[in-house]
Design brief:
Length: 183
């Protein structure tokens, strides 16, 4: 049970209520985020851009999100993104390797290993080493490097939101959200 009450959706200011009404899925994470009604729409638009407007491939994006969830203890995000990851091309072996924190697992190719090493340093150390960044730059454009960093930061924030407030975990519905962004 959540330690912070969910927002009363009927009492949201009109602009926030209108935005809420247009959401494809009414997930608990969004209900919690609605407590900060002036930040809900910008946060969800940012999250939506991560899920739909990056050059970084969807499978790679999901590896980053799942890595964040594993390293940060984001149970809510893990629950939502495992099905998305599988749908985007991540394998069960890769997901199992992330769950076991085996970032050098044989299920990952060289590009994916560079991605995970880079993201892990960003998540755990704030900045990556020059060597790790240089290895990532062999596989990713400057735009993709920044997308990786921003994806890490956004999902670190969401993990902190859901874990600190003890947001009740919804059944996986993240695919509904991701699908709605593709339309």
């Amino acid at each position: 049970m959540a330690l912070v009450p969910f927002a009363d959706i009927d009492k949201l200011p009109p602009k926030a209520k209108d935005y809420w009404d247009k959401l494809a899925a009414k997930l608990n994470i969004f209900r919690m985020l609605a407590n900060a009604d002036t930040l809900m729409e910008p946060a969800l638009r940012f999250g939506g851009a991560i899920l739909s407007k990056q050059d970084l491939g969807a499978d790679l994006r999901e590896l980053v999100i799942l890595l964040v969830a594993e390293l940060e203890g984001g149970e809510y995000e893990w629950n939502q993104h495992v099905p998305i990851g599988l749908r985007c091309g991540c394998t069960q072996a890769q997901i199992d390797a992330l769950a076991a924190r085996r970032l050098d697992d044989a299920s990952f190719n060289a590009k994916e290993k560079a991605l995970l090493a880079f993201a892990a340093e960003v998540i755990e150390k704030v900045k990556s080493s020059e060597e790790t960044l240089a290895e990532a730059q062999k596989h990713f454009s400057p735009k993709e490097i920044v997308e990786i960093i921003l994806t890490c930061g956004f999902y670190m924030t969401m993990a902190r939101l859901t874990e600190t407030t003890r947001t009740d975990i919804d059944p996986p519905a993240g695919s509904v959200v991701a699908d709605s962004l593709q339309r």
